[in-house]
Amino acid sequence: MTGRRAALVLNPAAGRAGDVAESLPARLGGELALRVHETAPGRSAAACAEAACREGASLVIAAGGDGTVSSVASALVGTDVCLGIVPLGTANSIAHTLGIPDTLEGALEVLARGEPLPIDVARANGRTMVLLSAVGLHADTVGETPQELKQRWGVLAYVGTGLKKLMSLSPFGVEIETDDQRIHCRATAVTIANMAPARTVLAQGPSVVSPEDGQLDLTIVSATTLVEAVAAGLHLLKTAMEGEPVERDNIGFLAARRFRLTTDPPQHVLIDGEEAGTTPLVVECLPRALRVMVPRREGRRAPPLAPEGEAKLEGLPDLEVEPKA
Q1: Beta pairing, strands 172-177 & 132-136
Q2: Is the sign of the CA dihedral 70, 75, 77, 79 positive or negative?
Q3: Which of 207, 237, 255, 282 has the highest count of CB atoms within 10 angstroms of its CB?
Q4: Looking at the record, which segments are called Disordered (predicted)?
């Protein structure tokens, strides 16, 4: 990566934050002059990234979890400034999806020797979305897990809340509108993904969820019992690992550039892991709007893309599909 200036946006509370600040200058060599911006109460990662851009940084490095990465990315969308990632969070789903190692040494190697890749992002209810938006089971589980448990146990904190939600699944009516059609059905979870690792099973309806195809992937799960939910989750994980689309009747999916979701009753909305009010939810893809440093693809194939027009809706309860005039 060449350029004159780089900036490190650092969450000082994140694990190994000090190691990152100490290691980066030596790894970047003399090509980039590095300035460190630390987040603080009243000073978000996005504000730090905006300041770095004003100072002329050509590379802004987000050191933290997915929330920090997404916040920094929001300031870089539509610019020529490249996003670098040093994953220091619990899930690190953005880094994982892009093939960035979760070790400090591996992430620094990508910053030093990787290449910039233009990827899609999205706008979700006015917010920048890098990963996904969710309503229903996923959003409720994250939203109802106490913050102190998240800080103490990481992703394990969601297990107890998730099990409670699975024991009392409450289907809701959903209307999904694209540029071409309106879809009505009942669901327990709806996820709109720009990118998602295989372990994010509720986003894995299609054969591929890619941030390089200029579209968003919507997955609907309509399981109503604990047994159905477990079976659906296992099926989603299996097909994601095999690169195949789902086949179960109580799971559906489709792709579009833009989705508008309304639900009855209103549902909590989750955008890139953060609570974001309630439905309705409008998400629009912004193709190739963000440049990210990723491992070089020399000698490797380009990532697979889902077949054009791949979709499955049949089998969803109370399904109605109306073409738009």
Answers
A1: unpaired
A2: negative
A3: 255
A4: 300-325
| Cβ count within 10 A of residue 35 | 13
> What is the C-alpha separation between 44 and 133, in angstroms, rounded?
21
Q: Are 50 and 75 in contact (CB under 8 A)?
A: yes
CB 190 within 8 A of CB 260: no
Q: Which of 23, 38, 157, 146 is nearest to 90 (CA)?
A: 157
Superfamily for the 5-113 domain: Probable inorganic polyphosphate/atp-NAD kinase; domain 1 (3.40.50.10330)
Domain boundaries defined on the chain: 5-113, 127-288+300-323
Helix (H) or strand (E) segment spanning residue 108: helix 104-113
Encode burial over 98-114: b for 16+ CB neighbours within 10 A, e otherwise. bebbeebeebbebbbeb
- In this predicted structure, what is the pLDDT of residue 208? 93
Q: Name 274's bridge partners.
A: 271
CA 311 to chain centre: 21
Ramachandran region, residue 42 (left: φ > 0; alpha: ψ -120 to 50; beta: rest): left
**pTM across the whole model:** 0.88
Q: Residue 46, SS3?
A: helix
Look up residue 211 and give its two tokens. Answer: 């941030």
Cα 87 from Cα 62, distance rounded (Å)? 8
Token pair 């789902």 is at which residue? Answer: 246
Spatial CA neighbour of 78 closest among 300, 298, 315, 286:
286
Residue in 195, 175, 171 with CA at minimum distance from that of residue 185: 175
Token reading at 318: 């109370």
Q: What is the pLDDT of residues 27-72, one digit of tens each?
A: 776 666 889 999 999 999 999 999 999 999 999 999 988 889 999 9
127-288+300-323: what CATH class? Answer: mainly beta
Q: Strands, E, within the chain: which ranges?
A: 5-10, 33-38, 59-64, 82-87, 115-124, 127-129, 132-136, 172-177, 181-187, 189-193, 216-221, 251-256, 258-264, 268-271, 274-278, 281-294, 320-323
